[in-house]
Amino acid sequence: xxxxxxxxxxxxxxxxxxxxxxxxxxxxxxxxxxxxxxxxxxxxxxxxxxxxxxxxxxxxxxxxxxxxxxxxxxxxxxxxxxxxxxxxxxxxxx
Length: 94
Description:
Number of domains: 2
Largest sheet: none
Structural class: mainly alpha
Low-confidence stretches: none
Helix content: 55-70%
């Protein structure tokens, strides 16, 4: 059976002393905070990967973007989240 907790309840759970020992970020006290911090690190790593591995500049919408361009970009992001990076790389190059 087990406990029936939704994700928001789990994220607000304070970390116990064993989990806090060794953390280098003193302001983290809950699972939600550590998850957000880890996601920010993942995002930064992906930016680095795109720039230095694939030679792609950081993307900016600029003055010439349209609603259709954003739709294509968001679809490429969704595909990248599923493990297919080709559409996102193509988008960034063109």
